[in-house]
């Protein structure tokens, strides 16, 4: 007595198994392989719709899109230190790492140890009117500014380690 096994077909099966005679049990054509993803199959494009646009391969410059040329920015970066010296003689200082409690008066008192202070400007958040943690200090002379950088850089003010640097100008 022969025992026949019942075979179940799933959506993933490619072809039905053959019986003992080597013939397929199903009389229908070979089932089509189906995707296991749940997303719908991609739609075929309608012959009436235009083909997708491609970017132009021309090398003509677009003045609004590109802004400045690369060669100009490279030239500017090479001579930046010379230009900075012309724009900033060295008496403008950039101070970072400040506590939110530091006021312009506190800064003036802190920097006056090393020379005469022309002006101080603590940068404030426009919405909260609280210090953003950095300031600009203008010293009377370049020597005073150099002394401040030398002796006040990486010192503690109101419990915070502050940095003092010469301002770098980046005007366009």
UniProtKB/TrEMBL annotation:
Keywords: RNA-binding
SMART domains tied to this protein: RRM, RRM_1
Biased composition (Basic and acidic residues): 72-87
Keyword Lipoprotein: no
Skewed-composition ranges (Basic residues): 51-71
Region (Disordered): 1-96
Domain RRM: 91-169
InterPro entries (UniProt xref): Nucleotide-bd_a/b_plait_sf (IPR012677), RBD_domain_sf (IPR035979), RBM (IPR050441), RRM_dom (IPR000504), RRM_euk-type (IPR003954)
Pfam families: RRM_1
Residue spans of biased composition, Low complexity class: 26-38
Domain of life: Eukaryota
Molecular functions (GO terms): RNA binding
SUPFAM superfamilies attached to this UniProt entry: RNA-binding domain, RBD
CDD domains listed in its UniProt record: RRM_SF
PANTHER family, A to Z: TRANSFORMER-2 SEX-DETERMINING PROTEIN-RELATED
Protein's UniProt name: RRM domain-containing protein
Organism: Oryza meyeriana var. granulata
């Amino acid at each position: 007595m022969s025992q026949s096994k019942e075979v179940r077909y799933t959506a993933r099966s490619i072809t039905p198994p053959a019986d003992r005679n080597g013939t397929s049990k199903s009389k229908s054509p070979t089932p089509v392989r189906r995707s296991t993803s749940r997303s719908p199959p991609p739609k075929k494009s309608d012959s009436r719709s235009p083909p997708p646009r491609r970017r132009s391969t021309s090398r003509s410059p677009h003045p609004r899109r590109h802004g400045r040329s690369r060669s100009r920015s490279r030239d500017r970066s090479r001579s930046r230190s010379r230009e900075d010296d012309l724009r900033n003689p060295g008496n403008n200082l950039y101070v970072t790492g400040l506590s939110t409690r530091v006021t312009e008066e506190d800064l003036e008192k802190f920097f006056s140890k090393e020379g005469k202070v022309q002006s101080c400007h603590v940068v404030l958040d426009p919405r909260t009117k609280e210090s953003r943690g950095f300031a600009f200090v203008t010293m009377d002379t370049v020597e005073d500014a150099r002394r401040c950088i030398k002796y006040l850089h990486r010192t503690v003010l109101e419990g915070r380690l502050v940095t003092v640097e010469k301002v770098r100008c980046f005007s366009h």
